C-alpha cells in the first residue's frame, strides 16, 4: 500500500511538472523585453513574413510586401500571441463578467484589462514567452484575435507574404506552421484548466506538426526560453532531441 501510494504521488507530481507553464514572470512587458534582448538578439526575423528588424524595432519590409489596412503599423515590430489572448482570456470570469476591483470612476469594465489586473494566472499565461513571436505590426493588427486555419479560397492579404486573413480566420505561411502547431500544443497542455483546443483545431495542428518539422532556430529559441522562464515546451524539445538539434542554449 505504501509503495502504491508513493507511486501515485510521484506520478501526480510528475504530471504537474510536465504540464507546468510559465510560473516565473507575470509581466507581459518584461517578457517582450527578454525576448528582444536575450532570445531574438541574433535572429531578428518576424514569424509570418520573414521580415528583418533592427534593435530599435524598425522593420525592413520584404520585397513584394503590401498592405491595404493598418499601414501606419507596417514598419513597426510587435510581439504577437500565437494563441490569441482572447482564446485564453474567455475562460476567465474576470474577462467575461468583470470583477469588483475592475472599476474606473463609476464604470465597471471587463475583458483583457480586467483579467490582467486581478488574475495572476491570466498574467502568467499572457506573459508566457513560448507563445510570443515577433510580427509586422500591420500583420498583427489584421490577424487580430482570429484562430489559425486553412483558407484555400483566399488570397494573400500582404502581397508576396503568403499570410491570409479572411472570414475571421488566419492562414499562416508554411514557414510558420510547424512553430504555431507546437505552440498550440504547449499552451493546451500547460494551461489545460484555462484553455481547451477544439477537435478540429487539434487535428489541423497535428497535421502541421507532422509536415513542418523543427529546425535549428526553433530549437535554439526553445532552449533560450527554457533557461529564462524555467519550464520546457516538451513538444519542441523532444522533436529537437530526436533530430539532434537540441543544444539547450
TrEMBL record:
It holds the Pfam family Endonuclease_1. Its EC number is 3.1.21.1. Residues 1-19 form the signal peptide. InterPro entries: Endonuclease-I, His-Me_finger_sf. Keywords: Hydrolase, Nuclease, Signal. The keyword Nucleotide-binding does not apply. One of its GO terms (molecular function) is deoxyribonuclease I activity. It is an enzyme of class 3 (hydrolase). Belongs to the EndA/NucM nuclease family. This is Deoxyribonuclease I.
Amino acid at each position: 500500500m505504501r509503495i502504491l501510494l508513493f507511486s501515485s504521488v510521484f506520478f501526480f507530481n510528475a504530471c504537474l511538472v510536465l504540464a507546468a507553464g510559465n510560473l516565473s514572470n507575470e509581466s507581459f512587458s518584461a517578457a517582450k523585453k527578454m525576448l528582444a534582448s536575450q532570445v531574438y538578439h541574433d535572429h531578428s526575423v518576424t514569424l509570418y513574413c520573414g521580415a528583418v528588424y533592427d534593435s530599435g524595432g524598425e522593420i525592413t519590409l520584404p520585397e513584394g510586401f503590401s498592405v491595404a489596412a493598418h499601414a501606419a503599423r507596417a514598419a513597426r515590430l510587435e510581439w504577437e500571441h500565437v494563441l490569441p489572448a482572447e482564446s485564453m482570456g474567455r475562460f476567465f470570469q474576470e474577462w467575461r463578467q468583470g470583477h469588483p476591483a475592475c472599476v474606473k470612476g463609476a464604470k465597471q469594465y471587463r475583458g483583457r484589462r480586467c483579467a490582467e489586473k486581478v488574475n495572476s494566472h491570466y498574467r502568467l499565461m499572457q506573459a508566457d514567452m513560448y507563445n510570443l513571436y515577433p510580427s509586422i505590426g500591420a500583420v498583427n493588427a489584421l490577424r487580430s484575435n482570429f484562430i489559425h486555419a486553412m483558407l484555400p479560397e483566399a488570397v494573400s492579404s500582404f502581397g508576396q507574404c503568403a499570410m491570409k486573413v479572411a472570414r475571421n480566420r488566419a492562414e499562416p505561411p508554411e514557414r510558420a506552421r510547424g512553430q504555431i502547431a507546437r505552440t498550440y500544443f504547449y499552451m493546451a497542455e500547460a494551461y489545460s484548466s484555462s484553455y481547451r483546443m477544439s477537435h478540429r483545431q487539434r487535428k489541423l495542428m497535428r497535421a502541421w506538426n507532422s509536415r513542418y518539422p523543427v529546425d535549428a532556430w526553433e530549437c535554439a529559441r526553445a532552449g533560450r526560453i527554457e533557461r529564462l522562464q524555467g519550464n520546457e515546451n516538451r513538444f519542441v524539445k523532444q522533436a529537437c532531441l530526436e533530430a539532434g538539434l537540441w543544444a539547450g542554449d
